């Protein structure tokens, strides 16, 4: 079999990172390289032509997931003509939806990757990327008059995160949707 072109190699790498980002959010970073490459439609051996290690892929996939989140938030703000309050409300509506609860692969990396990042070593790039992503998300959620993410944004993010994780853990019981509704009410009725 011949060598792949540079363009094809870049496309393959992009596909692996995208696939890993989705699988890690859905199943955790313990997904095997073999399963990941199979899901990407590539051979196990191709992995080592693209990445130095699985940890390097975890770092890159984490950054990719947070880049997707930032693009989604920017699109939401644009869709609401720069009206921060309306964009935040739409984000809360989407975040606390049954669809988001049921679709971790395309969902928020804050909730999906928290445990894996917490269990990883402190010096890892994924941990730094995660911390920056959390801070950026909290800043987006902060009230317009707030100076920084700490003024309301972190509390809102904690409510969103906690509700999503608890609703996923109780999925299949009536409590799951009650959690989403309670968090939604707490975030939207207060302001």
From TrEMBL:
It comes from Streptomyces sp. R35. The lineage of its organism: Bacteria, Bacillati, Actinomycetota, Actinomycetes, Kitasatosporales. The keyword Ion transport does not apply. InterPro entries: Homeodomain-like_sf (IPR009057), HTH_TetR (IPR001647), Tet_transcr_reg_TetR-rel_C_sf (IPR036271). Keywords: DNA-binding, Transcription, Transcription regulation. Residues 10-69 form the HTH tetR-type domain. Residues 32-51 bind DNA. SUPFAM superfamilies: Homeodomain-like (SSF46689), Tetracyclin repressor-like, C-terminal domain (SSF48498). One of its GO terms (molecular function) is DNA binding. Pfam families: TetR_N. It comes from the Bacteria. This is TetR/AcrR family transcriptional regulator. The keyword Transcription applies. PROSITE patterns: HTH_TETR_2 (PS50977).
């Amino acid at each position: 079999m011949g060598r792949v072109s540079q363009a094809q190699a870049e496309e393959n790498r992009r596909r692996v990172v995208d696939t890993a980002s989705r699988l890690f959010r859905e199943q955790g970073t313990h997904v095997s390289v073999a399963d990941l490459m199979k899901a990407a439609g590539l051979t196990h051996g191709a992995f080592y032509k693209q990445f130095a290690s699985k940890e390097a892929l975890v770092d890159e996939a984490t950054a990719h997931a947070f880049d997707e989140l930032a693009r989604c938030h920017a699109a939401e703000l644009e869709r609401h003509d720069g009206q921060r309050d309306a964009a935040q409300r739409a984000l809360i509506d989407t975040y606390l939806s049954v669809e988001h609860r049921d679709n971790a692969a395309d969902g928020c990396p804050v909730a999906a990757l928290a445990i894996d990042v917490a269990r990883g070593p402190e010096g890892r790039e994924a941990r730094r990327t995660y911390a920056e992503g959390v801070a950026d998300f909290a800043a987006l959620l902060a009230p317009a008059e707030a100076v920084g993410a700490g003024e309301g944004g972190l509390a809102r993010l904690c409510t969103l995160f906690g509700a999503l994780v608890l609703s996923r853990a109780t999925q299949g019981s009536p409590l799951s949707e009650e959690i989403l509704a309670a968090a939604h009410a707490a975030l939207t009725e207060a302001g």
